[in-house]
Amino acid sequence: MEQAVPQTFDRVLSSMCTRPHPAAREAAERFLATNPGDPETYRTVADLESRVVETLGTMTGLDQPHGYVASGGTEANIQAMRAARNRSSAADPNAVVPSSVHFSFQKAAEVLDVDLRVAPVGPDRRADLDAMASLVDEETALVVGVAGTTEYGRVDPIPALAELAADASAFLHVDAAWGGFALPFTDHDWHFGHAAVDTMTIDPHKLGQAAVPAGGFLARDAATMDALAVETPYLESTSQATLTGTRSGAGVASAAAAFDALWPDGYREAYERMQANAEWVAEALADRGFDVVDPVLPLVAVDLPEPLFDAVQEREWRLARTERGELRLVCMPHVTREMLSAFLRDLDACRARI
Ligand SMILES: *Cc1c(COP(=O)(O)O)cnc(C)c1O
């Protein structure tokens, strides 16, 4: 049998992951056979994990960060809800989220038996404060804001949501799984330094250019990690706050290598290039008469007629849709101006034929 080769990123406009930085790929391969789930035995990778958390703290305005490298944003979001639930005294705890949250919150609520209360977003596609407030009560353990929504790249009003959470003695979690490596170079208020944020999801394996699996879970207080920890009788280390047990050191080492190579200048340059590409393609699509959702972060949504979407997809472009059916172009680091030009040429050719 011929050895299988993974596909390239050359026609991928749908993914929130990207080609890892070369140093990040190399580190992932080097640390494949390590297990940061047992940090006393695997000390080198455990040290790398501490460094990763330190740097994530620097990026997010947190002086003494707590947290770890998770399997992804899904695990980090589950852990945020778990910590909030474990620290809440509510008999029947609920979490209040905007309808723009990632579907991982459905999984979290189901696994943890937390009542998920979903508030409609406003016309600007961001969390609506009144709608969120109307769902908060004394049983609310968690309020969630998104910094870079999966569908439209919107940033919720985090400081106002933090006040709402504090008034209810609930936790505020910020999901910056995708946006977290672009937002440091914008003037949005989104992190621990801007508001009373308790926990955050920020994934190196998305805009951080690290290899999968490398998600990020951050907490302001040690007590949050304590609320997650269980005793581990048969490991060298004595307690574990992660959701997974044995886990890959590849993602940890990969994130550390990506940070060494890219934080902060490389990430700034990547963000500026991605954002310029997103604005360029948004304008090109608007010039063709399509309805375009302007890119706040490097993500463009555009309303294409169904037959046109299907025709372009048949030309081997990997494309994703929003729930409303718009085309979602995620302008990740591997998405070049040349790729976008080629995509537009195909779009024009398909349109001429239809
Ligand atoms: C991608 C994403 C997630 C889920 O992360 P995974 O790494 O796929 O588990 C969560 N939240 C947001 C905002 C995301 O974009």
Keywords:
37% helix, 2 domains, 4-stranded antiparallel beta sheet, binds pyridoxal-5'-phosphate, globular, Aspartate Aminotransferase, domain 2, 354 residues, alpha/beta, 7-stranded mixed beta sheet, Aspartate Aminotransferase, domain 1
Structure description:
Strands 1-7-6-5-4-2-3 form a 7-stranded mixed sheet, with helices on both faces. The chain has a 4-stranded antiparallel sheet with strand order 10-11-13-12, with helices on one face. It folds into 2 domains: 22-262, Type I PLP-dependent aspartate aminotransferase-like (Major domain) (Aspartate Aminotransferase, domain 2, 3-Layer(aba) Sandwich), CATH 3.40.640.10; 265-353, Aspartate Aminotransferase, domain 1 (Alpha-Beta Complex), CATH 3.90.1150. It contains 11 helices and 13 strands. By secondary structure, the chain is of the alpha/beta class. Helices cover 37% and strands 15% of the residues. β2, α4 (104-112) and β3 form a beta-alpha-beta unit. The model has no long low-confidence stretch (mean pLDDT 97). The protein binds pyridoxal-5'-phosphate. Pyridoxal-5'-phosphate (PLP) binds at residues 16, 72-74, 77, 102, 104, 146, 150, 175, 177-178, 203, 215. Residues 16, 72-74, 77, 102, 104, 146, 150, 175, 177-178, 203, 215 line the site of pyridoxal-5'-phosphate.
